Amino acid sequence: MANVIPTKGNLMALQRRLTLARLGYDLMDRKRNILIQEIMSLIDRAAEIQGRIESTFASAYAALRSANITLGQHMDFAESVDLDDSVQIRFRSVMGVEIPILSARETEEATAPYGFALSNSRLDEAREGFLRVKQLTRELAEVETSIYRLAMAIKKTQKRANALQNILIPEFTSRVKYITDALEEKEREDFSRLKVIKARAKD
Prior knowledge:
The protein is mainly α and about 200 residues long. About 75% of the residues lie in helices and about 10% in strands. It contains 3 helices and 2 strands; from the N terminus they run ααββα. β1 and β2 form a beta hairpin. It is rod-shaped and about 125 Å long. The protein starts with 7 loop residues before the first helix and ends with a helix. The relative contact order is 0.16.
């Protein structure tokens, strides 16, 4: 504490900084709790989407195998599907963390990109299944990216909260106590000195 000059001005400045540090810690703690709640709901959602993708993939592949058996393998069916560039990204903010929202333009294939003369219902089922997988994969990418960003934000918030709780707040508290004790000691010395001066003046 040798670098702290025990004055009332320094005491008031340190008390303000201590109050701000405590307020900052409360805000960081609140932010961390909100982010943790958000990430926990997203983790549950990611697991649910992953399960749906697996089951949808399985049924789509089963339909595709059946279509291949009945129609033979037709590469021209696959080649007739256009490249998909319909994904759009927007963001929403959760306690200052940018969370992506993925959506597709309304250009999803409403009709099959192949003729019906050389296809059958199993091919249609496979196509619908893979379209659904594409939509679910988009949702999963959104959720997993959100989880990653929230996890990074929680880590950073935790680090700042720890710095406030374990370093700054104890340091400011110690300095305030040091200055308060020094000022009280000075007041006692001044009071004693004043009593001595008054006693001598009476003599």
